[in-house]
Design goal:
Blueprint lengths: L7 H8 L4 E7 L5 H9 L3 E5 L6 E9 L2 E7 L11 H12 L4 E7 L3 H12 L5 E6 L1 H6 L2 E3 L1 H8 L3 E3 L5 H16 L13 H14 L9 H9 L3 H10 L2 H11 L5 H17 L3 E3 L7 H9 L4 H43 L5 H19 L2 H17 L2 H13 L8 H6 L4 H6 L7 H10 L6 H15 L3 H26 L20 H35 L9 H8 L1 H6 L4 H9 L6 H9 L5 H11 L2 H13 L4 H11 L2 H28 L3
Parallel strand pairs: 1-4, 1-5, 5-6, 6-8
Antiparallel strand pairs: 2-3, 3-4, 7-9
Length: 677
């Protein structure tokens, strides 16, 4: 059974039959989530569909003193099981039996978005149509008579602009009227062309007695003609062997039936739109067309994307970094010092656990929140106005080199802020192989914590050249990402390539409420998932750093570093660098804190001088390379396990980065030594 994991608010709707359940369905970039956010506000829950990596949103709202539960189904172009989103959307409607489906279609691209509506009608569920983006359609000189369209389709049609509160009120009034009426006649359309009608009847007679509840037999027969993999496998299990053999014979020569059925749906769409929609020829190119001459251009598109990314980085370093530093120096450090004073009478081990383990671990996560908020807000705006689809389109050729698609660029770019949301962001990729490959290579993008280590150490060893060294290290990470992506795709995924089909949405003004809720949800998710994982690891690392005697130098952690020093020596490390690397598993910036303790100097200037005196530039460069490539932090590993739902792939990722970092560290050290560094 496919359903959202309910929160406490939602549980009441499952036990109270008076609470109506509404499913919100529509294609991507059509304003569906804007509608959901506007009517639910903060009364919503974001999670994952059980066993899936696809985001699930559900919430509650009140209208006319009635309570409703609404489920925001994943955006999908159709209901054929080509992706988890498509499978979840149709399974929810069929198996969870919502009281109403609100189908959101785009007035600016009505023919394309009505294809999903045609499929929803085939599920024989009560439907209201929200005709969104009416303002955009008017700007594009598209005129729609909603009354004629409602008459031709046979369903309630509510014209709205999702950003207008009065329009959303009209939609909710239509919902209220729907539930007050007792009779809701279902609409039937003919999706079966004449050349397939006989086969459809033959299939129906073969399967009718064996179709599992609650699937409609007519719909199952249609999906078998469409060669739907999930339905075909289900019916092969349900049918007797003789019926399966006959069915295979019928379907054997029907390789074009999917195209025939799709054509029949588009013929129905054309017939209902013919009298309701008129297009006025525009003398000038539309607003979106003008922008796309640059934003989607093969060359200018890259320059545009580079400029936008540069602006985002500028905002991060001008706004996010100072706030991050302020949080560290003015909030968490004084709080840790105050906690030390408050707990002066408590046992030293307990004081160390709270101050160094808990406050230090959680604080290191919270200091990065301002940077992540800027990332989330920037991406929310770019996605809401319709630009991120153009960025994916522009990057598609480069991603194809790794067997990926343009969508993979979106989560990879998130990795510059933090690898955790980058891993979580792979949910936008519909191919399982492409999603796995993107998850594996995503930690090769240097996050802000890794860059903090680089920014701290490079001036000590390379002085005026530290800027060039830093850019060289970042470039090395990106080049390795491309090379490793190509190799992993050919070796593990056998050169599999994933197709990339994305409709470029019309540009429109961003909805600040939607963006605000997105930033809130993603920030909260980051704190819950990353913070708890780092908190646990913080405590464990602290325990191993003080046992058995209370001194770091002879602790279990130090003994582990000394035991691993033979491998470290190959990279130019002594046991102290090995221990610093091991503690970076909790949070990458902890490598610097560990070195500060080991060298007995907490001031930045003194520590850099001590480190510069202790190691050669070749050893330092090797340590920086290994720090960028080493096993991802605990929070990232936890996210990889969550998103892949596989210990095998999680273990493979850990082993991959361990091997890659050691090999690159050895090469860097020996090449640097040979060059006289």
């Amino acid at each position: 059974m496919t359903h959202c994991q309910p929160t406490e608010t939602v549980l009441t709707s499952q036990t109270d039959p008076s609470v109506r359940k509404i499913a919100l369905a529509g294609q991507p970039n059509i304003g569906k989530t804007t509608i959901f956010n506007a009517i639910t506000g903060l009364n919503q829950h974001v999670g994952n569909w059980p066993g899936k990596t696809v985001e699930c949103k559900e919430g509650v709202f009140y209208f006319s003193d009635k309570k409703y539960k609404i489920i925001d189904l994943p955006g999908t172009y159709s209901l054929t099981a080509n992706s988890p989103e498509e499978l979840i959307a149709r399974e929810y409607i069929l198996t969870e039996d919502p009281d109403l489906v609100i189908a959101v279609v785009s007035a600016a691209n009505l023919e394309r978005s009505c294809y999903l509506l045609a499929e929803l009608i085939g599920l024989s569920k009560p439907i209201i149509v929200a005709l969104n983006m009416m303002d955009v359609a008017e700007k594009d000189h598209i005129h729609i008579d909603a009354d004629i369209l409602q008459k031709d389709i046979g369903l309630p049609i509510i014209p709205i602009s999702a950003t207008q509160k009065s329009d959303l009120n009209s939609l909710l009034q239509a919902v209220d009227v729907f539930f007050k009426e007792e009779d809701h006649p279902l609409v039937h359309i003919s999706s079966i062309p004449e050349n397939l009608q006989d086969d459809h009847q033959k299939i129906l007679s073969l399967i009718q007695q064996f179709v599992p509840q609650p699937y409609p037999p007519e719909w199952i027969a249609l999906k078998l003609l469409e060669a739907d993999d999930v339905i075909t496998k289900m019916m092969r299990v349900a049918l007797p062997m003789e019926n399966t053999a006959i069915l295979s014979g019928i379907l054997k020569n029907r390789s074009t039936s999917l195209v025939d059925i799709a054509s029949a749906r588009y013929e129905w769409i054309a017939s209902v739109l013919r009298s309701a929609v008129t297009y006025q020829a525009a003398n000038k190119p539309g607003f979106s067309e003008k922008i796309d001459r640059i934003a989607a251009h093969p060359i200018l598109g890259f320059l545009t994307l580079g400029g936008i990314l540069g602006l985002v980085f500028w905002l991060i370093f001008q706004i996010g970094a100072p706030i991050q530093e302020w949080l560290d120096l003015a909030v968490f450090t004084p709080f840790g010092n105050a906690a030390t004073g408050w707990m002066a009478a408590s046992p030293a081990w307990f004081r160390g656990l709270v101050v160094d383990g808990i406050i230090g671990g959680v604080g290191s996560v919270l200091t990065f929140l301002p940077i992540l908020v800027i990332f989330f807000a920037a991406f929310g705006i770019l996605e809401d106005i319709g630009y991120m689809a153009r960025a994916a389109y522009v990057m598609d050729n480069l991603m194809q080199m790794m067997g990926l698609q343009g969508r993979s660029f979106l989560p990879l770019f998130l990795g510059f802020g933090c690898n955790v949301p980058a891993i979580m962001g792979t949910r936008v990729i519909d191919s399982k192989a492409a999603r796995l490959l993107t998850i594996i290579i995503a930690p090769l993008i240097p996050c802000t914590a890794r860059m903090a280590v680089v920014a701290f150490l490079t001036p000590a060893f390379f002085g005026k050249n530290s800027f060039l060294v830093t850019w060289g290290l970042v470039s090395l990470s990106i080049v390795l990402m491309v090379l490793m992506g190509i190799i992993l795709n050919k070796v593990i995924f056998k050169g599999e390539k994933s197709s990339f089909i994305m409709e470029l949405p019309t540009y429109h003004v961003p909805n600040l409420r939607t963006i605000g809720l997105l930033v809130w949800q993603r920030s909260l998710s980051f704190l819950q998932k990353a913070g708890t994982a780092i908190l646990l690891i913080s405590v464990l690392v602290w325990v191993f750093s003080v046992l058995p005697s209370g001194n770091l130098e002879d602790s279990y952690l130090a003994k582990l570093g000394i035991a691993l020093s033979p491998v470290g020596n190959l990279m130019g490390f002594d046991w102290r660098l090995v221990v610093a690397l091991l503690t970076s598993f909790m949070a990458k910036e902890n490598a610097i804190a560990t070195l500060g303790v080991l060298f007995g100097n907490s001031s930045d200037a003194g520590l850099t001088a001590a480190i510069a005196a202790a190691y050669t530039p070749a050893s330092a460069l090797s340590f920086l390379v290994v720090s960028l490539l080493f096993i991802p932090c605990a929070a990232t590993i936890a996210s990889i396990k969550q998103e892949t739902n596989s210990w095998k792939w999680t273990a493979f990722t850990v082993a991959f980065y361990l091997a890659l970092s050691v090999v690159m560290g050895i090469l860097t050290y020996h090449i640097g030594t040979a060059l006289g560094l």
